[in-house]
Design a protein that fits this description.
237 residues; alpha+beta; six-stranded antiparallel β-sheet; two-stranded antiparallel sheet; 8 strands; elongated
Length: 237
């Protein structure tokens, strides 16, 4: 792993573990250079990485601080540390249905590779599936996961719960996710599997999810029927 990414992951873990709380000031640049035995350029790249992830904010003349809700101009993008769950878990108690539309192995695009900290020569699972609860179509999920990190994934896991496989079989800990939410209109594929026969916008969630060591293990886009879903956002505490 590149040095600045390792530093960014270390600081990110301190934030999600509660060692840095919302509103706390990070160490000064000079102090971090000494702590990690690296140059200021490396520290600057690590800090910029955390800014791009939405975890910290720079305040001119004051320093760098862990982001709090008061810093959010748009609270659609928040870490879901300790609050992260998949579709099956959030719909526990309901009968879950899954239609696997696609399950392939492919090389990631440049955009996806950057989000998953891979190269375009690496391999990822390429998954599309439609999910329902109590026979009510709710969401189509487009998912990319690195094979080198999530080994042995099979269709049976996709038809039930990928996250259960990751946590219970691979014994990996899912820590957090960074999300961007927007409204979009459905494609013909989405109209078919979400049983849409009228003008109905979808709620799109673009997500990068992380394990507890800071490794990104999932890049996904989920498109939900706007009349079947609601979300609450939380801050790290």
């Amino acid at each position: 792993m590149i040095k600045y990414q390792a530093i960014a992951n270390d600081i990110k873990k301190k934030i999600t573990d509660g060692k840095y709380m919302p509103g706390d000031q990070l160490s000064l640049e000079k102090e971090m250079c000494e702590e990690y035995s690296v140059s200021r350029i490396t520290i600057k790249r690590a800090v910029d990485e955390l800014v791009n992830l939405g975890l910290i904010v720079k305040r001119r003349g004051s320093g760098t601080f862990v982001k709090s809700i008061e810093d959010e101009e748009d609270i659609r993008e928040l870490s879901m540390a300790r609050q992260f769950a998949g579709f099956a878990e959030t719909n526990k108690g309901h009968e879950i249905g899954t239609v696997v539309i696609k399950f392939d192995i492919d090389h990631p695009s440049k955009e996806v590779a950057a989000k998953l900290q891979l190269t375009t020569e690496d391999f990822v699972y390429d998954i599309i599936r439609a999910r329902s609860a109590d026979d009510q179509a709710i969401v189509i999920e487009y998912t990319k996961m690195p094979i080198q990190l999530i080994a042995g994934l099979k269709k049976e896991h996709i038809e039930s719960s990928i996250y259960s496989y990751i946590q219970d079989k691979l014994h990996l800990k899912i820590q957090s996710a960074h999300r961007t939410i927007r409204a979009v209109m459905p494609t013909s594929l989405e109209k078919k599997y979400l049983k849409i026969d009228k003008e109905l916008p979808l709620l799109e969630i673009e997500q990068v999810a992380f394990l507890d060591d800071g490794s990104p293990f999932e890049y996904s886009i989920s498109r939900h029927r706007g009349d079947k879903i609601a979300f609450k956002t939380v801050s790290i505490r």
